Fold each of these.
Amino acid sequence: MIEARGVVKRFGTVEILRGIDLSVSRGEVACLIGPSGGGKSTFLRCLNGLERFQEGRVTIGPDVLDARQSPREHAKAARRACLRTGMVFQSFNLFAHRTVLENVIEAPVHVLGMKRDEAVERARGLLDRVGMLHRLDARPRELSGGQQQRVAIARALAMGPEVMLFDEPTSALDPKTTAEVLAVMADLARDGQTMLVVTHAMGFARKAATMIHVFGDGLVVESGPPDQIFGAPAHDATRSLLAESRVA
Amino acid sequence: MGEDPAASESDASHEVAGRRGRAGLVGALLLLALAATARADALDEVRARGTLRYGSDMEGGAPYAFPDPDSPRSVAGFEVDIMDRLARALGEGVRAEFSQGPWDRLLGVLDSGRVDVVVNGYEWTPERAEDYLATRPYYIYQLQLMGPKGTPAGSWDDLGRPKPDGSPWTVAVLTASAADDFAHDSDAGAVRVVRFDGATDAMLAVQNGQCDFTLQDGPAAAHYAGAFPGLRAVGPPVSRGYYVIYARRSDHALRDALDAAIGRLAASGELRRILEKHGVWNDLQAGLATDFQGPIEVPTTRRAARGWGLVPHYGDRLRAAALVTLGLSFGSMPLAMAIGLMVAIGRMYGPAPLRLALAAYVELIRGTPLMLQLYVLFFVLKLDPWVAGIAGLAINYSAYEAEIYRAGLQAVPRGQMEAALALGMSRGQALRRVVVPQAARIVIPPVSNDFIALFKDTSVCSVITLVELTKEYSILANGTRAVVEFATATAAIYLAMSLPLSWFARWAERRLGAEGTKGGLA
């Protein structure tokens, strides 16, 4: 489904990603864990073209993002990648001038050309699923963070993405609302949604993930199923990471 | 209005009684003034100071008073020479001192006390003679019609019939000048008066083919003929009036001294030598020495039309001018906003060469005066005044709007654009549907602020002959001397037009504002 080969990303002279190889198969729930500043979020943003990278290539289904593409080619490829993926941001990024319902139907109507009635019908179903059907007419700033993030998940799902990309979806939330959002994500995972989740929520990773990738210093230092990573971590970076999360 | 042929003939007989009466009044007033404030007549101040300060405008002022071509820091002209002689006549060692001011506001400068007299081709009119003291004339002017070479008309009277295509002739004049009054009052239904802020602007417009004719004071027409080779005098001069020196109402002694000095200058032939030196002497001027024994008499019947009653009397003209202001504002601001938005988006999201070009556009337009931009559109590109006015204002304000929008777009969090792109929107869609609507709310206060500023900036369009509210105020206040009344009325009209705008802006802000509202924003 997703295949990244040798992805290198630099900001100026600083190398954030130093050659990432990583693949996600259909139906897989992959979690990217690792210390802050390890390049997890940047890598995720390279997958749908929000960031360009200097070396390597990413394939999403039949679409290819390549470091050697011209800006125009990259923009086109990025748009196709965005249509195959849904993204959930750490800071939600709901459209501030739209209501909950409008946020969810915006892209289906204006990007996919769906009829408004049909889009509203689907949106209601998705909002019901994330437990936000009762706030259809609310504006984002009237909602709690957890509520906003659940709407953001519904908004991404409304485009019927093949893969959902989660960029630290609970890092800006308190424990109670974190639990609400993680419950929605766990529900999606059970349904077989292909997901790639950058997270610090180890409990969720352990329970919901089918595969864990540990990032450290711009590289994937260790990959494996949760039992292996949590039960028998092979790499020092993984061990210290797990130790820290236990203390916290 | 400046024309009053009967006055000079009747002057002689009434003059003696008139002056004696005034002399008595002067005496009474003088005593009163000495007793109350000890304020002396300006004549005493002039003598004590050793300078006679006269208000004049050297802009387009040849041959009256203009920058001396031989010594650009000083001023030359037949009025300058006359004032030099007159100042000397006031007392030992008194010199004349030129004081620059805008032509149509020189009487206001006189009121303020910064000059002692005004002399700059100011024709005698009954209205001015009521508020100020006038001397006898130092020049008898006529108006000269000027047209392009090969014009079909042979004289002013030919303008009584419309053009072959039935439309009226357009006649360019200096605003509030004698030519303005004459062309406006003459019963020529086939003439449309087009007002300019400078005599030479009017000539340029005719040479450009933007107006059919220009009506000019004789001296100006003669002097500038060489500078506008495309123009020629059409027919004999028309009308007749008198250039006089105006002093404040309280300064009888100064006026009388100047008046007597002009009389001596005319009688001795020195006035003729000055006028001949500047090439403005003609047979008509012989009357200066023979027809006047003192100031022109002020007719008493004129006193009726004064004060606040004038405002409703000229209500139609104010209303028409207000409509021009509204038309210019509402014609240009939407364009300015549209252009500004495109410039701002281009500067933020366009390719590098476009960004550079648009930045240069903004700096060029912001960095040059609106008046100059209007000049280029009107006199160089020769656009219709309305087109030039709306385009000029729109272009000028678009640069300011662009910067406001850029600030507004930058104030929308990056995440909004990223979220839109991640949902598969194109950059254009993301801007149109997500970023711009949110920026719009942010920029409402500064944009409405600019709109109100533009309302008042439309007054600059008077340089391209559009008579909007400020220009009409200037014309009416100048013609009637009811300055306070018309200034108040004009300010009230501006306020009445801009207040609803402020209210609308606040309403729009509330409506677009996402501050906890649930409005049905589509």
Amino acid sequence: MKLVQRLWPSSLSGRLLLTIALALLVGQLLNAALMVRAQREQAMDRVAAEAAVRLIAATDRLEQGRPLRERMLGRMGRAPGLRFRRTQLTDTSPITPQMQRVPGLVSRLDAILPSYGVSYRRIEAVTVKAPPRARRMERLAAEIGGRNDRRIRQLALVAVERPDGRWLSVHVPVAEASGRIVATIIAQTVVLYLVMLVPLVWLTRRIARSMGTLREGVARFERTQEAEPIEPSGPSDLVALTRSFNAMSARISAMLNEKDVMLGAIGHDLKTPLAALRVRVESVPDERHRSRMVASIDDITRTLDDILSLARIGRTGEVAEPVNLVALVEMIAEEFHDLGEDVALADAPRIVAPLQLTWIRRALRNVIGNAVRYGERARVSIASTAGAGSGSVAITIDDDGPGIPDDRIEQMFEPFTRLEASRNMATGGTGLGLTLARAIAHQHGGSLTLQNRRGAGGAVEGLRAVLTLPVG
Amino acid sequence: MTDAPHILLIDDEPSLREPLAEYLVGQGFAVTEAGDAAKARTLMRDQRFAILLLDIMMPGEDGLSLCRHVAAQSEIPVILLTAKGEAMDRIIGLEIGADDYVVKPFDPRELVARIKTVLRRAARAPQPIEDAVQGFEFDGWRLDTVKRRLTDPDGALVPISTAEFKLLQVFCEHAGHVLNRDQLLDLAHGREAHLFDRAIDNQISRLRKKVEADNRTPRLIKTVWGGGYTLAARVRRLASPDSP
């Protein structure tokens, strides 16, 4: 089953071609079987006719009192090795029970003999291996007769029990099925394959090309989310499909544009009153109150920014540029140092990757920020894994915190998920940081994973976040 | 109060404009308010302003269009107020002639600090030649002063903080000169920056980590004993950041 799966082609044109080729082959095999059968029937008819003629002639001779055997071959018939009695009259049947019976021959002879005045009690017919003598005789006869299509390996032995109880038997050569049929069938199949498969290959290639264009268009839309109409080509079904896709992508693109406009408006309409509030807060005389109000406004702003960013990911409008990733991580580590946080960066050689700088910076800030917030400190290391043409770089961020229960790790990437609701106020995150960071990683064709770091005893020693990004 | 810098504040949203004007007056500025670009244009015909605070998103003519007009017609510095903090807006804002921007909701104290910095810069160099300069090149490195980015000799972006960027820009502008810590502080951050000498040393060390092949034996940013620091490289001024 596995072998079949492996051999079964995956592409449309491959499947189509293989199916047609197999169907043709089955058809040709059936054809060959029918032809072989027809040939066999024909051979049987011929054997029956020849046996009938001999039996009729022999019966005539017996009834006229003439000798049974002819001396047609003259002296040659007496030559040693060529003496082979075709027609015999015996007291008992020459047929033994072990011999291979041929009912088809009996029924044919039953249909012929009575109408030529041959009376008999019963007929038996078998095939026997032709003795060498018979083969030589037949070869000779074939050469004299100018035929070369008969190779004789078997003889049909037909024995008729006459009314007087004696047995009249004749040997008739049975023609071998000619190998030419197989050759004919093979030649036919080859011709059919050429005639049918060559245009089919051409046709399926064309369809495959049209589908390839469509597939690339769909992939491009998936990547850019910008509607670019695909030129319809190929058969009408594909043209219709392409048109439908074009219409759909245009509609989706329009909806996404609307969404962007709406988000921009929401952002503006919320940030203006926030800005007003932020200015008015300055007139609050109580320093303690003021700073709390400022912190609240900052929280709202951060959440708003995260929500807007998350909604905008995939359509950021920012192009990827080669960025020295190590310098970027260094700069972020320095920002955390300036805030008095413990972020250690292991030395790494220069690694350049195509990045949307502002977004990756944000993802890294979120992940490193989580490490120092929940895990006391962050140890960051950067390692590139070389690949043929397209390697990747892994930024590993380890902390010394309590980790996350294994069954809740995936959940942490869902928006507004926080490990402990009670820590909300103390730690002040939006619950969107990891969601956003992972979305940014995916946008770059990379990934973000979390796992617990375990010590030798299996105890959790902290959390490890790995941000993987493609290089080049 | 006659010599108080006169600010023209342009924002369509009175809920922000009014308290902000009040706050700025409280900080010692004279403030005139305008609700849209047309009103601002009228006001500018009759009065001279020291600086414009300009909201980007406004009905009618938007802030960017007005900013372009102001930059082309006069030398009045402009600080943009924007609701979007995205890089695109920053680049567009600075490329069309704005001097700075703040993202809503901003810390009013930070806005005041930026207003003062921009005003001081405008006072010191009424129309410096540097305005035409859009970047510097030294030893293969490029400092794009419009987009505020540093690229290494291989063309890869090297992210640096704003403080480091300003410091590097000062070094490029004064290539070959020895600058002491006070001068660096003043040129890069303004006299009122609450920074200590050690902060400059720290920034220098961070900058070296990024541009020096070996930061223990610096080749570009050199320490001058008793004096300060100097950028020891030939600096080329670029009219356009992409020019060869």
